[in-house]
Design a protein that fits this description.
386 residues, globular, 16 helices, mainly alpha, 2 strands
Amino acid sequence: MQVRPFTWLTLSFFGYYCAYGVFLPLFPAWLKTQSYSEESIGLLLACGYIFRFSGSILFSGLIKRVSLLVNGLRYLAVASAITMALIGLMSHNFWLLFIGLALYSMVNAAGMPIGDSLASTWQQQIHLDYGKVRLIGSFAFVVGVMVFGYLAGMVGEQDITWMITGILIFYSIVQLLHPNPMPQDEPQSAVENSVGFLGLLKNKTTLRLFIAIALIQGSHAAYYSYSTIFWTSHGHSVSDAGLFWGISVLVEIVVFFFSTRLFKNWSITALFYLTGIAAIVRWLAFGYADTFVEIVLLQCFHSLTYVAGHYATVRYITTQPQNHIAKLQGLYNALAGCAAIAIFTALSGVLYPISPVYAFSLMAAFAFIGLFITPRGVKAFLPHRV
C-alpha cells in the first residue's frame, strides 16, 4: 500500500516514540522491580547510552545513499522488537540483561538519526514540514508515557518490557507501507559517500555546535534516569510520574507545531542560547521541586531545554550538503543523545545517592559550559519555498 511521505513518517515516528515514551521514563522503574540497586540501574543505563552511541555511529555510517533510509528503518524496527523481547526474558541474570540491553540500545538508537535523516531529506526534496512531522513523535511519546504509565500502575511495572515489545511490533508493521515518492539520490550521492565522521568535524562551526548541544542535551541525563525515582520518593505515584512526563511532552508538541513560525527568524546561535539558559534554570530548581505545581511548572521548561536545541540542530543539518545529512544526524544523536548522556548518567549515578540536588546541579553546570562553546553568528536559515 502506497502512502504519502508525510503519512509514512508520522506512522513511523508514532511507533518509535511511543515505545521510547515507555522505555525512557519507565525502564528504570522496571529495573527496580527486578531487584537492582540504584547504582546498578545507573550503570546499566549509562552503558546502554554508550551502546546507543555505537549503534548511531555504526548504522548511520552504513547508509551510503538516501534511497536506503527506508529499508534501513525497517530492519532496525524488527531488530528492536526482537531484542526488547530478549530483555524481558533475561532479567534474572545481570550479565544476560546487560547483553540484551546492549543489543537493543544499538539497533534502537540508530532509528532516531536515520528517521531524522529521512525527514531532512524530504524537507529538502519536497518541502516536508519537519516540525509538524516531529510533533507526532512527541504526541506518541505522551501516549506511551501516560497511557502505558497508567497501565503499568494497574498491572504492575514488571510487565513494562512486554508493553514496549508490543509497541515495537506495531512499529515494525507500519514500516512495511510504501512511501511515494521515495527519497531520491542526487547525482553526487549516487556514488559511494566517502565523507567520514572526522572529516565532518573538521568544520569548526559543526564541531563547536555539536559539542555545545551535547553538553546542553546531555544535561538531561539525571532527569532521564532518576526523575521517576525522585518523584516517587517524594510521595508521587508511578502514574503521577507518567503524567509529569506527559505534560512536558504536551508542551513540546505545541512548540514543535509552531516551530517554523516561532523560530524561522531566530539564528542557530540565538536558539542555542535560549535552550542553554533554560536548562540551567530547570536543573538548578529540579532538586527542590516536590509539590505538584512546582513539578508541572518545571516540566514546561522541556519545550525550551529540548525542543529549541533539537530544532536548531536539525535545521543546521538540513542546510548542509545532502550526502552529509545521514552522518551528521548520526553524529548529533551519538554525541548529544548517547555519549554525553552516558557519561553524565554515570556521574549522576554517583551523586544521586548522596543528594539529588548535587546530581541536578552538576547537570546545570554542563549546560552553562555549553553556552560558552556555542559559536556566534551561526544563522543557517532554510530556503523559502517556491
